[in-house]
Amino acid sequence: MRAFLVALVLCLAVAGGHAAAQDTRLPDIGSSAGTVLSPAQQAEYGQMLLAQLRHYDMVLEDPLVDQWLRATGNRLAAASDQPRQSFTFFMMKDRSINAFATLGGYIGVNVGLVLTAQTEDEVAAVLAHEVAHVTQNHVLRGAERAQRDSIPLLLAMLGAIAIASSSDSSSSGDAAMAAIASAQGLAIQRQIDYTRSNESEADRLGMRTLARSGFDVDGMADMFERMQAASRTNQGGERERVPDYLRTHPVTTTRISEARQRAEQLRGDESVVVTTATPEAVRTERVPVPAGTSAAAAAAAGGPFNPLLPGSLRVTAADLAYGDSVQFGWARERMRVLSANTAGAAVREYEGMRRAGDFDDAKRYGMALARLQAGDAAAAATRFAALLDDYPDDTWLALGLAEAQARAGRPDEADARFEALLRRMPNHRAVALTYAGVLAERNTPEAGRRAQDLLRPLLRTASDDPLFQRTFARISEIAGDPVRAGEAYAEADFLSGRAERALVQLHTLRKRDDLDYYARARIEARIAAITPTVLELRRQGVRDEDLRRQH
């Protein structure tokens, strides 16, 4: 990965130097801001970027974290100025403070930003700001300018992220990477930096979105103050540099003051914007918040349930359950554990917090999860059970306990708990995937078939879910279904930035003489769909190095 990033930054430095010699003023391209890249192309580039980030293991894939982030992001997106815009929210493993928006409504958030926040409202404020960058075409205008300068667009997007993340290590090789990125990558970075007016507009519209969706409007100023504090205290060595987010989103005292003033104005308005839909029209109106009803509930009743919203933005009642402070605590600590270098390091981190007296229930959950990840399933089960006594029926805790029981040699108890969860929440992605993973560890045809039964109802909605596809591939293999396993492995590779390898796998699968009509049709359809992506990646200069070495 590091070799790739070094080459990538050098490539971008050349491209950036060329661009710097030209007139980089933004041309007047009208209000559509889409004369170069169509909506379909924007979505394609966004999806390819996410796939490449997955390929280099930069994305945190976890069903519970995904559901929390998606519910929070979609609640904001549905209340934005463009509720029909499709959004995809994903979590990056990096512990530096950063978030970014890119083409097609793809918004990435670093774990470090969530760990810095103290409330869900503060994270929502950053997400709302990034949503505004998309809805106001700030991202698109920068990308189109780069394309006009003949910069390979996918490499430019990857390079900007590589520049931000490469300087987050203390090794000499990484220090050299940081020097290259800082000295030679500035030109391409300038191509995507937002202007001061962009930032002001994103703040203003982000605050309005926060209010519409029922989050605390003080969250934006609070988060800005935390980032400013990080900027002031993190002075010193390379690891103590200014947070990446502050490089492209500088926080000033004036900006914080403006956020406070906007919050006061919005807080004085005791109504919310509600979007209602009929087959004939979409109507947006401001209505008073009924006594005893939270703004979140009032906004959600009209916005996120709108049937005319894109499917990716529809928020269910189950999703809204992820929006309270308890769920945010579980989510933040789960990210802390899953982003640690090792499970042992996570355990030591929590032990340090406990010695310092910083050990609330969320930290207790994190310690239980860290113990489970470190292989101490019995201790983890004890800790999860104690928490579950305090929070009955909590899905995160019940799943943790079931998984710990399975790995502690108590399969009957684990299965009973999983089955109870499925009866309460049929086709729940996190429950089904966690249970399927436990069944896969048993490595028996019977367990594989049961896991297939769990996941098969979710296949229709899992076309863009690499974790689901990998799990379904493995359980199909165990169940003795090699064709379905092969299709799912190919799909997982495609979604994880290995489009060429996915295409090779599908061509090999198509040669089997035991394919029925439907399987052959599915495989040929995927070959036809993936081939243009492979060609575009080659045109952008992205190749599968493993396949090239094999040939």
TrEMBL record:
Active site as annotated: 130, 203 (proton donor)
Enzyme class: hydrolase
Residues noted as binding Zn(2+) in the record, renumbered to the chain: 129, 133, 199
Pfam families: Peptidase_M48, TPR_19
EC numbers on record: 3.4.-.-
Residues in Peptidase M48 domain copies: 64-262
Record flagged with keyword Transmembrane: no
Keyword annotations of the record: Hydrolase, Metal-binding, Metalloprotease, Periplasm, Protease, Signal, Zinc
InterPro entries reported for this sequence: Mito/Outer_Membr_Metalloprot, Peptidase_M48, Protease_BepA, TPR-like_helical_dom_sf
SUPFAM superfamilies, A to Z: TPR-like
The keyword Phosphoprotein is assigned to this record: no
Chain's role: Functions as both a chaperone and a metalloprotease. Maintains the integrity of the outer membrane by promoting either the assembly or the elimination of outer membrane proteins, depending on their folding state.
Identification of the protein by name: Putative beta-barrel assembly-enhancing protease
Organism: Luteimonas endophytica
Taxonomic lineage of the native organism: Bacteria, Pseudomonadati, Pseudomonadota, Gammaproteobacteria, Lysobacterales
